[in-house]
Write a structure and sequence with these properties.
The complex is a heterodimer. Chain A is α/β, with parallel strands linked by helices. Chain A contains ten helices and 14 strands. Chain A has two domains: 213 residues, 3-Layer(aba) Sandwich (Rossmann fold); 73 residues, no CATH class. Classes of the chains: A alpha/beta, B mainly alpha.
Amino acid sequence: MNLTIANVGKCYRGNLWALRNFSLELKPGVLGLLGPNGAGKTTTMSILATITRATEGHVSWNGVDIASQPNMLRSVLGYLPQDFGVYPNLNAVEFLEYLAAVKGLDATTSRRRIDELLNLVNLADVRKRPLGGFSGGMKQRVGIAQALLNDPQLLIVDEPTAGLDPEERVRFRNLLSDLSGERIVILSTHIVSDVEATATDIALISQGRLVAHAAPEELLQGVEGKVWEWVVPSSELNTVKQRYVVSNTIRRSDGVHVRILGPDRPAGSQPVLPTLEDAYLFALSNHRAGAVAA
Amino acid sequence: MNRSRLLYHLVKADFLERVRRYSFLLTLAFSVYLGYAAYTGKIMLRLDDYRGIYNSAWLGGLMGIVASCFLTLVGFYIVKNSIQRDQQTRVGQILATTPMSKTFYTLAKTISNFAVLAAMVAVMALAALCMQFLRAEDPHIHLWPLFSPLLLFAMPAMAFTGALAVLFETLPVLRGGVGNVAYFFLWVALLAGGGISDLEMGKPHHDSLYFRDFTGIASVMSQMRGGLLQVDPNYKGGSSLNIGQNAPTKRFVWDGVSWNSIQFLARLSWIGWAAFTALIAAIFFHRFDPAREWFPQKRRILPAWANGVTEPVVHAVQKNVHLTPLTRSAPTNRFAHLVVSELRLMLKGLPWWWYLGAAGLFIACLASPLGASRQGIVVAAWIWPILLWSQMGCREAHWSTESLLFSCDHVLWRQLPATWSAGVLIALLTGGGLGIRLLIAGETNGVLAFLAGALFIPSLALSLGVWSGSSKPFEALYTVWWYIGPMHHVPGVDFIGTTSESSQPLRFLVLALFCLAAAFLGRRHKVAYA
């Protein structure tokens, strides 16, 4: 089972390239697609979910180009879009039954599976209530259930934790980890902690280009010895922000504890262990600096 | 910010948002088409066998009437989405947090609607000018006779239409498809109440006619008829605005509308009515708070908390994930299952009285004499499900489920035919009483016409829904078509075949096929890798 993305690009009207020369080779596991807003994550997800055509490049599922045989991928695809709607007059069971019918699933087995899924996403108690009355978080859970309806080999989830409360987020991350065994899961987000908890691989994307693709440990190794904590008076904070890449600031009684990224140690600062957020910000700032220089 | 500046910015933002959409170009294209239809004689104003020389006065009168009559119908459907757009884009929720009053908002929306409609009228004014040059029957351009009917007949009518659109949007009952259908009948009533049928040859009419004359057609016609009577004393008094008929053989010179203070006042009164309607709309406007709706929403689709239901608690501790392995259905079962699902989706949420009405019409078709069933009851039976058909092809766009559906396998060749089949089933079920009667009576042509109608209606709905992404075009077009064709048994337009003379099943079978092909092409365009 593998998904190959080769030199994929997407150009919108007005010669606006949302994605350029994007290449990845994916095997079973959870890929965290991490990038700031507007980086091209949703465009990538839409192309992989066969919603949008790529302008250039190819996407292959098990060696077969999805442009020539999209249904081969669609039949094993589970997709949770960033924004989606529901039919307000249907209840959760009816909505999932409808989508099961569209996906061509057998009525009897899909009914049993719907019960299990609603139980899994904790909607069993409100299964007969029309979706029009559901909160944003409950709708998101219906979205998660529909993505798992056909037991997908490729599960694409775009900003899945948006609208979920902290407990729901933890639960969803655990669910993703449990599901990832024999399938490819692509999790797109700009929330580093979502990826930190679940991803076996991370792809960093910025300004429509792949910045890095590595295991979380490799990304952390790349920033080791480049993260410093420095205590400065509040009055100097702005100057520090202008001179260094700052990943975090905390105000304490002895001053502001500033977390700085960079190869050179500022005088008076202490080296600290990097987090994935440090690695993410470091890679992005390097990419932006490179883009400006180019 | 002072009030006039606030009003200006509300109107400006709304107007710019509309005119920068591609759909606005289509709107203007419709105005250009109306001008072209008048130029080529497809739309013709005739007084028995006469028409006026194409001078500024006649062209101004013609264009004023065409704009007033047609744009008040089509324009309503074009502008009836301004509040809905604020709701969908969630700009409304931001506006609701400002000190802006409800009256101010509905007034601004009315002016913005009027601005869009006025742009369409302006295109027609330009068309009138071009037409005089191109027709070259009178080279002298007189600006007042050319433009005054557009300014004084069409513009006030546009203001009132814009206000009605706002009122319909604020009333929950008229906001959706019911309003789209109801407006057509209101428009017919306004036209009929305009007093054109009250005009009697050689007799003066009461000034109140001017105040009832929404479009201005009676005012113009009465003066045109008076002008012709002076030229030809044998003129019998016939006058009509025709579409697609033979051109009159005789011509006369008409000098234009002779305006008096009563007429001015009457036209201004329609602007007053527009302002009054906007004020009424403010009473019903919910200010983007569902709790303020005049008519309560269905209790079962209110937020869970409103029904005393607490959101299910989620625990971070994971249950064991156990999912039943899946099997795929056989292709035929799969399609039948999907058709049933589509049918269920269409019928879900309908009130009990809808089923009662449908059952009543079915039984009435079955129990009444064949003539009454074919010419009357089935006509009612096939307007009854209009709001079900109008959802076809656009439901996915309306409820934002496109990304969920279009990533499913074989969606084009399975889901779209299933939707269409469900629409055909609705037609067969609601009009089935007549079908059975025709079968029993052995009326082969009648059965064929019935089947052609049952296939044509969902095909038309599907194609319009897919291409427009909205239920409105079908609701408007179908209502007008249904009124002209089956209601008045007009040959060539009567898709049900209500009489032997008006029945043309082959034409509607071909049209059904054409619409179906258009629907497939439209959906294919939307689904990547279809």
